[in-house]
């Protein structure tokens, strides 16, 4: 499709694409309508019904085949299960018979080599020989071995008799030792009694000596107490005299008399000793009051200067605020002027665009001719 226009815009191109798509869709629709195999109207109903019946018949046949196949499958499963159970039963019977045969005819003690592996071999075995004339011994068999004990019974009997004799001897020796112990205990008791008597006599003499020592100590303590009382009285008298002297010294001291020369520091003429200082003199008080008044005047002067400085700063801040406000007003005016200018330019652009659009519509408008009406009723619509 070719547009016979002097000016072709984007909108014209979009319209041309739409018309081309519509023509392509119309051609495809004609192909679908005029194709008897694909069209959806003008169908052969008898043929369709016959096809539907054939499909239903095929479906029923398929269902019947599936049903028979499932029945055959179930039958085969039951046969397989029964056969497996029968085989399992035969296997259990065979295993049972095999185990019975093994327990009955294949036990360990029935083996030919069981005597080599018998755990009770030593219990069942016989001694190598009973005596020197044992009939089981051959011509080449040895008769005497080192460590052989053929007279074990007789030897044990003699050992028991010997142990009994030893026990009788030990009992007799124990009785003799008991008698000797009793004699020694009696001798020890006699010695203990003699020692106790001697200790009792020594205790009596020691008690008498202790009483004498206690009497001497008591007399010494009495004399020492008297001496301590005399010393205490002497110390008390001396302490009283010292206290009286100290009271007199304190009453006559520079601290109680409040001597101003004592409070003066030796190192610094302008410094006073705190614990000796008792106050200022009238001249010092007068000087101190004058200094306070001078400090008050200086403080008032500094406050006045501070207030004046604060007022100046406040005035400076007000002037700065006024200047900033004027600057802000000027900036707002400039911005409003720029906005008004931009609005006028946009309005002029809108007018020009509207005028251009109207001119394009006039150029795209064609007069209706007979060819326009002849194009109808020629397609599938």
Largest sheet: none
Low-confidence spans: 1-5
The proportion of strand residues reads under 5%
Task: Please give the share of residues in helix.
Answer: over 70%
Radius of gyration: 75 Å
Number of strands: 0
Number of continuous helical runs: 8
- Determine the mean pLDDT: 83
The SS-based structural class is mainly alpha
Outline, from the CA principal axes?
flat
Question: What are the secondary-structure elements, in order, as H or E?
Answer: HHHHHHHH
Q: Could you tell me how far the N terminus lies from the C terminus, measured between alpha carbons in angstroms?
A: 21 Å
Written overview of the protein:
This protein is an all-alpha fold and about 375 residues long. The protein has eight helices and no strands. The protein is flat, with a radius of gyration of 75 Å.
Key words describing this protein structure:
single chain, mainly alpha, 8 helices, 381 residues, disordered N terminus
Short description:
By secondary structure, the chain is an all-alpha fold. It has helices at residues 10-34, 45-105, 114-117, 121-124, 152-251, 254-257, 282-364, 370-374. It is built from 8 helices and no strands.
Question: How would you summarize the topology of this molecule?
Answer:
Blueprint lengths: L9 H25 L10 H61 L8 H4 L3 H4 L27 H100 L2 H4 L24 H83 L5 H5 L7
